[in-house]
Structures are given as C-alpha cells and as structure tokens.
Amino acid sequence: MSIAEKFLTMEYGPAPEDPKEAQAWLDRHGYRFGHFINGSWQPPAAAEYFDTADPSNGEKLASIAQGSPADIDAAVRAARAAFPKWRALSPHVRARYLYALARLVQKHSRLLAVLETMDNGKPIRESRDIDIPLVARHFYYHAGWAQLLKQEFPEYEPCGVVGQIIPWNFPLLMAAWKIAPALATGNTVVLKPAEFTPLTALAFAELCQEAGLPAGVVNIVTGDGSTGEALVKHPDVDKIAFTGSTEVGRAIRSATAATPKRLSLELGGKSPFIIFDDADLDSAVEGLVDGIWFNQGQVCCAGSRLLMQESIAENLIAKIRERMSTLRVGLPLDKAIDIGAIVARVQLDRIQRMVGQGIAEGATCWQPEIALPPRGFYYPPTLLSNVHPTSIVAQQEIFGPVLAAMTFRTPREAVELANNTVYGLAACVWSENINVALQVAAQLKAGVVWVNCTNLFDASCGFGGYRESGYGREGGREGLLEYLQPSWFKNAPKLPAAPQPYAVPQTAEKPQAGTPAIDRTVKLYIGGKQTRPDSGYSMEVRSPDGHLLGEASLGNRKDIRNAVEAARKAEAWVKATAHNRAQVLYYCAENLAQRRDEVVRGLTAVVGAKQAAAELHLSIERIFSYAAWADKFDGAVHNPPFRNIAIAMNESIGTLGILCPSEAPLLGFFSLVLPALAVGNTVIAIPSEAYPLITADLYQLFDTSDLPGGAVNIVTGYAAQLLKVLAEHDDVDAIWSFGDEANAAAAKALSVGNLKQVWTNEGRAIDWFDPKFAEGRWFLEHATQVKNIWVPYGE
Q1: CA distance 256 to 747
Q2: Could you give phi then psi for residue 219, rounded to 5 degrees?
Q3: What is this structure's pTM?
C-alpha cells in the first residue's frame, strides 16, 4: 500500500515494541526465578517450579518458584525480624526509601512496561502510559504520607507483618497499591503475586535491592493458590490485604474469622455504565471503549453493564457498533493495537462459556468482523443486547471484553437497575445535566462513581467497594488507615468469656401469699413501638448476687427480621440532614438528663451506684459528642493530576447490627449506637445480655426525643443466637460485635456468605469510660464508607 493510500484509509501499520531488553533481563536470570526473601533470592524449599507464558503466543517466558508453607514461613519470619527497625525509623528516612523506589520505577519504566505486557497480554500503550506511571505516582504520594505520618496520625501505629495477595490484571500496579501504603505506615510485607503474572513483582524486588531497602522489609513469594492460602493462615501475619475474586475473598474471610487478623478485600464488580438522553453520545462511546475494552475487559471495575435511556438506545447502539468495528485486536507489543490477549486459556474458556449462556438466556450477540491472531488467547469485543436484568451476563462478572446492554426510562429506574447486583465497586454516569448526574451518583451503591469520564485512578483518591465488592480502601488517607490501628488497641487486655446465665439461688425472693406478682417484662422496641416477642417467651434478669430484677423478652429470628424491615423503612432518618440528626441527638441527651435518677436507680442493681452514676453522666456527654460530630465528620475534595476533582463523601453504610458490651450496659450502648446514628445509619441493637432491662429506659427516651421509628430497634435475648440471625441476614449491611473472642469470631464466620462488613473488639477490653478509647473518629470511620465521585471540568 502506498503512502497516499495509507493517508486516505488512515489504517495503522504495525509498530512493534522491541522486547530485547526484557529478554536480556530474563536471560540474566537464566529464565528461572526463586523467591525474594530477607533481601536476597532464595530457591523454593520444595525445589518445585512452574512456567509462566506469554498470552499473545502461548510460549514459555520463565520458570517460577512454587511457594510452599516453608517458604511462606521463612518470608514471614524475615518480615517479623525486620519490623521493629523499620517501624522505628524516622518518618523522613522511610519517606526517602519510598521516594527512591518511585525514582527507580521511572528509571526502569520501559523495561517494566514491556515485561508487564509480555507476562499479562495487555497492550503496551496501556502498560507504558497508564500502569507504570501510576506505580511511580503511588510511591511518590505515599512517600509524602510517610513524612507526615506522626503529625497526621499521632495515636496510631502499624499493624505489623502484612500479607498481600494480588491479581493478574494489573500486576505491578496492584503491588504498588498495597506495598506503598504498607511501607509508608511502618509495616513490613510478604507479597504473593498472581500465578499467571509474577515477573514485574520479581523485577520490583530488584528495585528494592537497588534502593537499599533493609532486608526483610519487602518479601515476595511466588506460587499458586496454595501459596496464598499458607500466607493467609500463617499465625504471625497481622493483616491480610487481598485483591481478587469474590469467591476467594469469601474463603479468606472464613480462614481468618477465628483470628484477630485485620482484613481488607477488593473483590469483583459488575459496574453500571449509565447514559442519559442528554449526554454527549460520542464522548460517552469513547468512555465506554475505555470502560469495558480497556485491558481486554479484565478489570474489576469495568463498565460491563450498559444502561441506556430508552429514547437514545437505537442511535447509541449504532454508534457503539461503528466504534467497535474500528478497534484493533492484535499482538500486545504492537503500539497500534487497542485490545491484546486474554491472560490464559482458562480465562478465555470462561468468557466463551458465559457469553454462550447469555445467548441461551435470550441476549443478542454482535461482534465486529475483526481478524484475530492465529496464536495466543484472543477474544473479540462483544456486545450483548436485549439482556434481561437477571441474566447471568448482567449479574456475574465475566472479566472479558463483553458488554451487556439494557435500557431504562427514568433516573429512578436507572438507579434501581444499577444497584440490582450483589456488587458495588464502581459506576459511570453520563449526562450534561450536572444535577441529574450528581443526584444519581449519590444514590449508587458503589465506592467510585465517574461522572462523564471513566477508569480514572490516582493515589490520592481512595478506591474500593460496597457489598460483595469487598471493604476497605486503597489510596488516599482512608487507604492508609487500612494499615494502621490505634496504638492502645493491640495490647488491650482480653475480656473474660461470656458468663453462663445466672442460676436461681435458693434464697431468691418470692411474692407473699395472696399478692399477685407485677409483670416487669421489658418488651422489644421495633419500628418505634414496643412489641412482644414472636417467641412468647422471656428470660430472667438477675443481679450479680442472684436476685431477680425482672424479665426481658426473648427475641428470635422473626423479631430480627421485623427489626431489619423497620430499619430499612426508616428513610426519614437516612435522608435527614446532618443538622437535623444533630438536633435529635441533642434532644436525646436532654431527655436522658431529665430521667437521670430513674435510670441510675435501675442500673445500680447491676453495676453498683458509683458505676451507674458514671455511666449516666458519660452517656449524656457521649450523646453530645456525636451530636456535635453529626455535621462535622466531613469528606474531602481531592485534586488528582487531571482536569478533575474527586469528591470524597463519607456515606453511611446502611443498616447495622450492633451487639453491645456487657461490662457497661448503658454507656456501652450509647458508645456504639450513637456514632452509627450520627452519620445516618439505622440500627438493630442487641443490648447487654447482663442487663437488657435497660431497654425500658431507652425506648422511653427515644419515644420522647423525635427519633423516627425504625432508626433504632432493640431486640433483647441471647446474644449468640441473635448474632447468627443478624450476620446471615442479607439486608444487614454491617455487624459490630463487642463481646468476648467467641462472639468476635462468630460475627466474622457467620457473615462469610454475604461478605458484610464486620467490626469487632477481637475480644479485647475497651475502657468505655475514657473518651480517648471509646469515642471519636475510630468509631465514625467504621460507621461510614468513602465514595469518591470524579467530576471533570473545563472544555
């Protein structure tokens, strides 16, 4: 073809990237890699290796060490030995190390980009222009946090040894997302890269050596799922940070439930891409290309569900098909291609199988006539239209270049369709009406929402999901908190195991003959009303010396269901302004003060007069504190290095199940329920099993304080039984369990199925009488989740 013909057709010729430097790097290592442990390369203990292959042609790249429990143990021991000195370094020295790593990433950026493309199959343009610059950005950004750590987090300390497990879709970027904040906060690391894509993590190990990072601070152990399992189960790991599939996330949650390990999970997604009829359709189509066909659709936040306003559907589909026909599928090292290779045969087979199932369920499949390379693992860009919202291709993550299209009529219907999934990772909203865009963005159950843009990331902006997309954030200030904990918490004393129900003593009082007993049974409080328990039974409540104080309703599964339903309907509280919530809480404090003598008198029989008076006094103070926080626990506006702002909103989690502590029946209740209420959550509270009669005082308090019905629901009964129902209930968004170790483990284990957020005291004692430990940001941070809404500006 002549130059003139090429000019007229505007066809791209091949522009291959030369892989010789990457091949030379592989050659220097003899195409075989061990583990990076304690600052040096170590052969695998079991002398086992596996091969990693180039997805573009299926050819072997290198032999990789298969990690065993012995290798993991060696890495954890190295990280544990390095931790005290690394933690003790001055903030400036740690910052210098992270800065050095950022500079080295830039210095070796071309090599890292080529290695990433060879190992993963993504286009070299994406590795070169997106992944590697973001890797450097994360180390630069967190070098700044390392410098400021003591000033900004004076009461916090690092978790310790952190086990990190990353996926194969963004191998080096995911490593940077995890390693940079862990090191900045003073932790040491054992990283397990994905089996399919370990090469850039191993190249990063060399950068650690070049930067002079102390031995043992970063350790990298390669292997398959069994290697990751050994890391998760290692008893000397303090935290696990995992990015990957929801199924594996459940397994990790189950494996760590009985331990005090901190856990953050960034899991799957089925992100909606919502286009309104007033959107700039040409821009939206270009955004869609980035949203679903970036990295072959192998992106957890890929915009894989297209929701189109009905009036533009036909025109939009035509534009999408036209644009799909211009996409170029080919060898990933060719700088002129748009879509590279699928990472492995097993993933390609999954994509084909799920598309086939979607077609069988009624979807219409359209693919452009694009020639695929004869070797390697490739799949063409695919559009599935007429997709039913319940179809497998609309509900399950395909993790491939497949777009499922549906229509909607109104913004309300768009929100309902968008939220009609178990996931909640990301979303896009396209509309020229900023009022519509932001209103919809605020209603979407997603941790990140892009308005008139897509797939924008920055180290300053937190990223993470809601619901079964996991919990925890990576990036930003909130990402740092995943690697920090209050300084006092780890060494807090353990609570004793929950006591057995009090036995009735021989000398228990009895009513005099001929005098009828007074019914002192406390009812449940559900939906703003006192209700009798579904079971029809009650439980005796006795003082520490065995005297009968009264009876409390024995709540059961049906009562919890009723309470959850009432909490879900309490929209008056959820939609109330922060100012209005504050006014109601102040009113609660005022009314509690009016009832001081009555409340103290009842509480004295259980905890003694001195503690009862202290609990009442501090409860009033605590209510005042959270009334004050209600309109002050603000978000932030980030300034990423683009023409965007990112609005970081502290959103309520939803409906919380709270198991209150026994040791401070009144103060413990308010210390947990009030931060949840202050930020707009609704609550099902299980009061102290030692003194559930407090419920009578509480529902009278709430009834007289203008708290909307359903905002707080109180179900008395045996904590262990009610915890099970709350943890397994799909409409409960989070569990707070503040009891003994058994309750903490049960809360985590029982909620594996729906992966709800769980926060516990890990069976440790909290001094509820000291606001330093029992009040403030630590509680509010667990009562909220951060949503980042990206909004572009400029012409």
Answers
A1: 12
A2: -125, 140
A3: 0.92
Provide DSSP, 488-524: TTTTPPBPPPPPPPPPPPTT---PPTTPPPP--EEPE
Which among 146, 152, 770 is positioned nearest to 488, based on CA atoms? 770
Residues 328, 329, 330, 336: what is their CA dihedral angle, to the nearest 10 degrees? 30
The string of pLDDT tens digits covering residues 486-514 is 999 988 999 887 654 433 333 333 444 44
Give the tens place of pLDDT for each residue, 119-143: 999 999 999 999 999 999 999 999 9
Q: Which pLDDT value is given to residue 7?
A: 65
Which contiguous run of DSSP H or E holds residue 778?
helix 777-782
Dihedral of alpha carbons 63, 66, 72, 73, sign: negative
DSSP string, 679-705: TT-EEEEE--TT-TTHHHHHHHHHHTT
Residue among 712, 700, 599, 705 at smallest CA distance from 658: 712
pLDDT tens profile 34-87:
999 999 999 999 999 999 999 999 999 999 999 999 999 999 999 999 999 999
CB 184 within 8 A of CB 94: yes
CA 393, 399, 403 angle in degrees (round to 5)?
50
Contact 168, 194 (CB under 8 A): yes
What are the residue numbers of the active site? 266, 300
- Rounded Cα distance between 662 and 737, Å, is 11
Q: How far apart are CA 688 and CA 347, in angstroms?
A: 50
Tokens standing for residue 313: 């559907």
pLDDT in tens, 197-247: 999 999 999 999 999 999 999 999 999 999 999 999 999 999 999 999 999
Q: In the chain, pLDDT over 70 holds for what percent of residues? A: 96
Position 643 confidence tier, pLDDT thresholds 50, 70, 90: confident
Torsion sign across C-alpha atoms 454, 459, 462, 468: positive
H helix intervals, 214-361: 225-233, 246-256, 281-292, 313-324, 345-360
Residues in the chain: 795
Read out DSSP for 743-771? HHHHHHHHTTTTT-EEEE-TTB---TT-H
Q: What sign has the CA pseudo-torsion 354, 358, 359, 360?
A: positive
- Please report which confidence band the pLDDT of residue 713 belongs to, taking 50, 70 and 90 as the band edges: very high
Give the phi and the psi of residue 341 in degrees, each rounded to 5: -95, 150
- CA distances to 71, 231, 323 from 226, rounded to whole Å, are 12, 9, 43
Q: DSSP per residue over 6-51, as a string?
A: HHHHTPPPP-BPP-HHHHHHHHHTTTEE-EEETTEEE--TT--EEE
3-state SS record for 150-215? HHHCCCEEECCEEEEECCCCCHHHHHHHHHHHHHHCCCEEEEECCCCCCHHHHHHHHHHHHCCCCC
Q: Which of 772, 780, 738, 734 is nearest to 754 (CA)?
A: 734
Cα–Cα distance measured from residue 535 to residue 763, given in angstroms and rounded to the nearest whole number: 30
Condensed to tens digits (0 to 9), the pLDDT of residues 281-312 reads 999 999 999 999 999 999 999 889 999 999 99
- Supply angle C-alpha 225, 381, 56, rounded to 5: 55
Q: Could you tell me what percent of the chain has a pLDDT over 90?
A: 87
Residue 723's nearest CA partner among 513, 498, 473, 456 is: 498
* Tokens 């598309």, located at residue: 355
CA distance 398 to 355: 8
Residue 794 has pLDDT above 80, yes or no: no
Q: Which amino acid is at 336?
A: A
Structure tokens at 595: 């009832």
The candidate with the shortest Cα–Cα distance to 592, out of 701, 729, 693, 687, is 701
CA trace torsion 291, 295, 299, 304 (10° rounding): 40
State the distance between the two ends of the chain, measured CA to CA, in whole angstroms: 38
Q: Is the dihedral of CA 715, 719, 721, 723 positive or negative?
A: positive
